[in-house]
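DM from R.C. (forwarded with permission)

"hey, sorry to bug you on a friday — could you get me a structure for this? deadline for the figure draft is monday and I only need the backbone to look sensible"
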Amino acid sequence: MRATATAALSVVAPTLCRMTAVTPQPHSVTALSRDEARRLALRAQGLLGADGRRAGVRGVLRRLGSVQLDTISVLARSHELIPYSRLGAVDRTEIESAYWSGGRSFEYWSHAACILPVEEWPLFAFRRRAYRAHPHWHHELSPAAYDAVLTQLRERGPLTASQLGGAKNGGEWWDWSASKIAVERALMYGEVVCTRRSGWKRVYDLAERAVPAPLLADEPTDDDCVRRLVAQAGAAMGVATRADLADYHRLKAAQVDAVVADSGLVPVEVEGWSQPAWADPAALAAPPRGRHRTTLLSPFDSLIWDRPRTERIFGFTHRLEAYVPRARRIHGYFAMPLLSGGRLIGRVDPAREGSTLVARQVSMDGTAAARPMAQALYEAAGWVGCDTVRVERCDDPAQAAALHRELIHLGG
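My reply, with the result:
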């Protein structure tokens, strides 16, 4: 692989903390240092130790409980970047197959539009009921149009909106056709399930056919749904404040307050955190140990999708600038944070030009970050089929020179 560089960056040298095993006592509050909380979060997210790597892509999905989808595709789509960041260069067709084959997952509204393990179908019964009870639709729809879509799916099998009669009326993007309105409404209500994406189009099927019967029949109360989602979010984050727990599946703070005491999570105090926190007791049972991943993270990765939490845990301010006017961008269109040694030590705005991975803008926490940045760029390049890395911009001369040396070294 060749490397060329004209660039600049910034890093903190990674340090490892030692955490002693904690056995929470009833009614006691465990005290955690900042480093302990950070390491708990990394392990819970499958980015510290080997446990998160042994179970493959499906294991990543089960562990996280929610993988966000997004239309932006730079190196790859975000839902592909999530397992890549944890497992390394997994074949992208294997990722899609692991998500969608065998009826193991479905798409629904969680943190945003997300891929969810099919086992979580019952947990969103409260949201499906809420959509039915308080619909807020901007489109009129006749009962006949709604029934016609369900009939087509019943008779013809899984279909996209285009196959159901067309997604649009020919106007702006929100000018949906009746069939698109109907199938999306049925998706919200839980009569229809998105079982996969084809060319980024949702493929819809009847819930009665796509969801295993025991899960389809399981209708927990609203409190039970929220309690189980709070517990799942706590396990996926390791340690979390009330705001963190609410944000993971976009619950309301009052909903979290009502159930957190019965969720199985235990109260903890984290050094420097101004708000009360809770931890997964399984996470406290043994200190996080193992190898850290050096990797680039999608801005939609659940480790960092909550910006206040990212600042609190990593001291790292990050903002997706894809929707910021070009002249006001600081780090670039789709800046991906660099994770190394358990810390966020830089970021890069990547692009592809043929067989070249272009680092349009790089920033780091110092010259010590040049080696992990170069490693992450080369690994990402190989994963997406590029054989060259080129750095366009790195505003700090010393960091640019260090990165150039590392890229040349890796390129042979």
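R.C.: lifesaver. The two ends are 8 Å apart (CA to CA).
me: no worries. Residues 2 and 388 are 5 Å apart (CA to CA).
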